[in-house]
Amino acid sequence: MVAEGAAGGFVVTSGRYTAEATGFAKGRNIQLVDGSLLKHWIAHHSTSEFRSDIRDKETAASTSSAPLCPVCNESMKIRLARRGLNAGEKFWGCARFPNCRGVRKII
């Protein structure tokens, strides 16, 4: 994880973890989520609540100082380049991606 720049992580299964897996995760910033915990999470978070939360975040992002796409004139979102010369750098990408590939540099 450190080699990839991750500070921690989750490992999720619908079943159970072995004693070896549990031992490996101890002392590391790894949270093991077994089937019973996963079932609990799902039962206590309805899809409508989740989608509402996503919409609220998207609305907040689009009403902030986000620029408009130079291609389609829609709002843009901050994205992270994952490949190429700019890997690891943030940029403005069209909210309609992949239908629109408009980008702007963050100044």
TrEMBL record:
UniProt cross-references to InterPro entries, sorted A to Z: Restrct_endonuc_IV_Mrr, Topo_IA_Znf
GO biological process: DNA restriction-modification system; DNA topological change
Restriction endonuclease type IV Mrr domain sequence ranges: 1-42
Source domain of life: Eukaryota
One function term, GO molecular function aspect: DNA binding
Pfam families assigned: Mrr_cat, Zn_ribbon_Top1
A cellular-component GO term for this protein: chromosome
Ranges in coiled-coil conformation: none
Name of protein: DNA topoisomerase type IA zn finger domain-containing protein
Lineage, broadest ranks: Eukaryota, Fungi, Fungi incertae sedis, Mucoromycota, Glomeromycotina
